[in-house]
Amino acid sequence: MYTQHFALCDRAKNASLIFYYAGYFSQNIINAIGDAVRLRIEKSDPRGPVRRKLFSTFIEMAQNIVHYSAEALTPEQQQDREMRAGSVCISQHGEEYFIMCSNPVTLEQSEALRHQLETIRAMSLDEIKQEYRRQLRDDVPEQSKGAGLGFLTIAKDSRTPIDFIFEKVDDNTVVFSLSATI
Amino acid sequence: MEKIHLPATSNTPEVDFDFQARRLMLRGESYPESAAAFYGDILESTREFLAGLVEQDVIVEVQLTYFNSSSTKMLFGLFEMLNQAAQAGNRVHLHWYYDSEDETILEFGLELREDFPDIEFLPRELEV
After folding, report:
1. Do A153 and B69 touch (CB under 8 A)?
2. What is the average pLDDT across A120-138?
3. Which of A5, A130, A142, B87 is the most core-located residue (most Cβ within 10 A)?
């Protein structure tokens, strides 16, 4: 299911892989991987803001998988200690880092995601910051387990507009991938 | 009111809300699986505490080095409450610690100051 994702990660031959994990994500796994990612970048990059942005993007992406991936190990109605499938890949290209996450979603989810992400993608950094401020003050949408702020947080930190693809698996399942550049 | 003291974990901050001393402190990192679940009771107790305050000083110390998007939302709710308490005649002093190398935390603090002008905002640079 993640072959295309891995191919994308592998795309730039000069890139060095910082981290790649595919499998089930839970908060405990995020804590552990988060530590590893942080240590790995602390060694390779002296730039504090870059490290902070990379860690933040990783957390937002990984927590999205835990909350929204269509492939869950835990029952659908369970609201905590969730465990869901996906992958996160971080690679380094010179001064830049490319970070990408993938997880299966339902066709219905994919339509909503596409709309949300296309809107963000069309925004300038100033507009992203404004929208972030607006959503921070807004009431949380009912279906959201977070604040709906996650994508905007990722977009704020990305040097280039966030990118996404949807790959059809079957009639009701699509693999959703989202990437950012730090 | 009973104080709230929670030690830090890998993804939640140390919480020390001493309501009797009117001193509220958060320190560490915040990215729990569910920020609403983690902050729910804390915010509820704080709301109750603030409702009973008349012309008092409240010291708030925030030393957070990282918080995820859903924690940001909950923190915003906390400051909204504190601002209302200040509007009601209390004096809220917010010690906002930030790392000079990282603009994000200070930026968020400055936004809070803009939105909640009744809180006395005291930026403090973190000693590394």
Report:
1. yes
2. 91
3. A5
Q: Does residue A147 carry a pLDDT above 50?
A: no
Q: Which chain A residues have a beta carbon less than 8 Å from that of B76?
A: 136-137
Output the CA–CA distances (angstroms, integers) from residue B73 to A74, A104, A140, B37, in the order listed.
26, 27, 9, 13
Beta carbons of B111 and A133 less than 8 Å apart: yes
pLDDT band with cut points at 50, 70 and 90 for residue A11: low
Å from A30 to nearest chain B CA? 9
Question: Domain A3-181 carries which CATH code?
Answer: 3.30.565.10
The torsion angles phi and psi of B16, rounded to 5 degrees, stand at: -135, 90
A79: contact with B, CB 8 A cutoff: yes
Residue A86 has pLDDT above 70, yes or no: yes
Distance (Å, whole) CA B128 – CA B114: 27
Here the ipTM equals 0.91
CATH topology for B4-125 is: Transcription Regulator spoIIAA (3.30.750)
